[in-house]
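tool_call predict_complex ligand=flavin-adenine dinucleotide
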Amino acid sequence: MTISPPAPPSTPTPGPDAPPVAVPDAPPATGAPAPRRTVAGRGFGGIGSDRARVDGPAKVTGTAPYAYEQEVENPAYLFGVTSAIAVGRIVDIDTTQAERVPGVLLVLTHRNAPRLRTKLMGELVVLQSDRVRHRGEYIGAVVAQTPEAAREAAALVRVRYDDEGGDVDFHADHPAATVPKRGAAGNPREEKGDVEAGLAGAAHLVDATYTTATEFHSPMEPHPITALWHPRPGLDPRARRLTIYEADQGPIATQLILAPMLGLLPNQIKIHSPFVGGAFGGKGMPHAHVMLVVLAAKLLAGRPVKFALTRQQMFATVGYRPPTAQRLRLAADADGRLTAVVHESVSPTAKLATFVEQAVGITRVMYATPNRRTEQRVVPLDIAPGTFMRAPGEFSGAFALETAMDELAVATGLDPIELRRRNEPDVDPDTGKPWSTRNLLACLDTGADRFGWEVRTGRPGERRDGEWLLGMGVAAASFPASHALSTWARITFAGGRYVVELQASDLGTGAWTILPQIAADALEVPVDLVDARIGSTGLPVAMIAGGSMGTYTWGNSIIAAARAFRRKHGPLPADGATARAQGRLPSGARQFARHSFGAHFAEVAVSEVTGEVRVRRMLGVFACGRIVNPRTARSQFVGGMTMGLSAALHEAGHRDPRTGHVVNHDLAGYHIAAHADVLDLDADWVEEFDPYVSPTGAKGIGEVGIVGVPAAIGNAIYDATGRRVRDLPFTPDKLVG
Amino acid sequence: MRPFVYERATDVADALDRAGDGAVFLAGGTNLVDHLRLGVRSAERLVDITRIGLDEVEELPGGGLRVGALVRNSDLAAHPALRRGFPVVAQALLAGASGQLRNMATTGGNLLQRTRCVYFQDVTMPCTKRDPGSGCSALEGYAAGNAIFETSPRCMAVHPSDLCVALVALDAVVRTTGPAGDREIPMTELYRRAEDGPETDTHLVPGELITHVDLPPLAPGTRSAYRKVRERASYAFALVSVAAALDVVDGRVRDARLGFGGVCHRPFRARRAEEALVGGPADAAAFAAAIDAELAHARPGRDNAAKVPILRNTALAVLAGLADEGARS
Ligand SMILES: Cc1cc2nc3c(=O)[nH]c(=O)nc-3n(C[C@H](O)[C@H](O)[C@H](O)COP(=O)(O)OP(=O)(O)OC[C@H]3O[C@@H](n4cnc5c(N)ncnc54)[C@H](O)[C@@H]3O)c2cc1C
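tool_result ok
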């Protein structure tokens, strides 16, 4: 299937940064021919080629230098001391026993820690006072010759607190719930039309509350970091140098945040993050331990200080997806057309640093309705800060919205796909702008075909396999294709090869592999002649790997750099020829609403005996613009779906009601899907080309794959059993009795 | 982690010689090493017992089995005599942990693994089992995993093993040697109830070494099975589990053995249900009456009430399956 983008509302004058070769020749009418592909195309291994990961061999042989494996001379090892209370004051911190442990080099507390210059990021303000702001907060550190000595000594630091209790228990009707002033992605509150009238006149009304759980990124690689302050060559503060090896979705953010807090200029900090062992949003911003290590290393200038979190610590200070409680009201006329939508969500945030899980955003773009109100509230608590986690907001909101749509389908007697078709918006319901590309219906129809949706009767309890009730469910997905930061790239020709350089980051996603593909395409050379250099400060400034924006933003600047390179140096460049350029948002782009879309199908089996749920089959079909590399793209989609399945069936961090720390803080207690849970899972896509996101034609693929998965599974559970579970995860206790 | 001395014992006598004085036996290490790392436990000396022998399964006259304490969980699960005569044990083993862990874990270690209660494993929280007299954090804390049988405010933890649930049901006998001489302790008497003092899990004395576990034979024609409930399809401890053996003759229950996992401070033997079953008809109504007689003594709390219906359904399904299997053969 080939789907073309619509014409822009008025033909834009091609500016200097207009898409070079990818835009259709003429504004296509509906059903217009496929857009022209870039010239090099297949055969050269360019965009669209199924290229194997270039870093695969290094990774599977254990030779890829992740942050902890970076060779440094004579490293010292840190272990953190963390608070045992939620809120209060440190009355006394006794380090004498710790200092006596053989091999200990330094015991760091708020008494001897270097002072920070600014409080730019609250989460990073560590060891600056005797205040404790959440349980598990770093209140000290031990640095020793070996990691074992550091850990042993850290356990011997004796702390006396003045315990002030703390408010750690989240519930939806918490009196402190407010509409956040800052921190929300988009407006936390909006209203259009006459909601009350829309509700009152409805033939069908779904009014239900949905909850999602606290979730943890749990990447394999436990946030390692090595920091080295180079010995000061003199008194000039500008001669100071700090080198950091860490796992980062984009070193630029860490560099720009650390610099002012440490009283340095950004270029005094060098950060290397060539390989990242999974991130999922958790490595998008620096967390407290980064500052802890940097402060310790400052007192041991000349000596690299290393730290990797324990699995338990990964549940304390490196962020999580905050839980939500969401009330959704869908009002529809007799034909199932929405007459009003009200989506209200509340979730906790840390007093220390606001992070808003903006769940209501997706409801503003999915379905047409004349009347809508959405409102996001937060409850500030004395807990560690949350952070972005794969599809922040959209994941949580889609669970509520797409389950409610299923409930509306039941209420109206419509097939869930037909219900969505009837509410498909011509233009973006949020902004009123036309879509750059929106092929949700194509995803639903293609998926229904491939999945065998016609087998579903819509009558729960009819299909079974012994004690296992079988059911099918569907849910829609979307994720914005935003533009956050114009990115630079440099292309250089040396020794017969091209190298493309920028601060991009490969989280295991495939950037090392696909950025040369984009460059090869634009340079019109075979991909085997192109190398990438990414993952370090000092390279051209680029967008971080976040918000599903990496590939198209980086691709944009790579194409711009390639064009600049060819303009300047022609097809036969001299050795050392180089060019740099910035990729800007394609002209005309702002006139469009830009989003990725997808549809998830799930078939589940639910035991009538035990309430256990097994997902037998899942299929996701996506519309995400051009697919730059089908192999790495498929693994992004399937990875997102697996994570969604895991969230649906297993994942929930449980907080102690007194201290607010996560009690099931290891992977034996915090379950993620095991191999036996992930059975037949497949991803596919409809062909699409979106010139208004970037000249690559691509939209984002990293996050849309997780959006809506729990709803599809929950809707399948309803289809199997007739039970509507509105609280994640779908554990046996919710399906038995 | 505190430094410790590692020693390797060469035989049983050598292991006993090295016991005492802050020594701890190290078998597969899959539980002990975690605890050393977490600070849940400390040891001055680790005495590795994996090379002292005791790693064979012996068939006893009359159809019983003698399992060496160092037989690995995966080897035991694969043993033909066990699979033939005691499917409930093989199934319980295979329902536990992961392939890699089962390759390391030993029979004796499995019996003596400690609770997975989140507070027991967190040295910053009070826990009487870990730190006698400090109280139970699970009472007012996260309580979804708590016990429902023989509950005590002193400790709400449950025993985590799958294997042990099958072994208590089958009246297995633990053979030990040590300071108190050689002993034979029925599995049903090995473990302490929370009320008896949760500080120690078992009635073993310090330095006592488990050498074997004896499985007495089941009457010919007895069917047995294990079923474990968990929201993750593998690699998860039991939400609840049921081990059952049923001997049905002419539609009536001649013998019934029933063990429950995930519900009690010790691997739980459902004697009340057994008594109700024996001599009665092998039908759904009788099964339900028997299980309900046991469940009448369950004391769920605010977060773990679902264990009761899940256990009920699972026990009934296992019994029905065994009765069916018997009838079909
Ligand atoms: C992630 C994870 C998941 C798991 N899931 C399950 C599960 O689902 N079901 C389940 O049943 N188990 C499960 N287990 C537990 C596992 O079965 C036990 O850790 C294992 O059986 C312990 O055996 P080991 O030989 O490694 O014991 P070790 O760790 O070596 O020892 C445990 C204890 O037993 C003592 N000990 C060992 N042998 C003897 C002996 N012969 N005489 C006297 N004392 C002895 C040791 O001193 C120590 O105190 C899991 C474990 C992990 C880590």
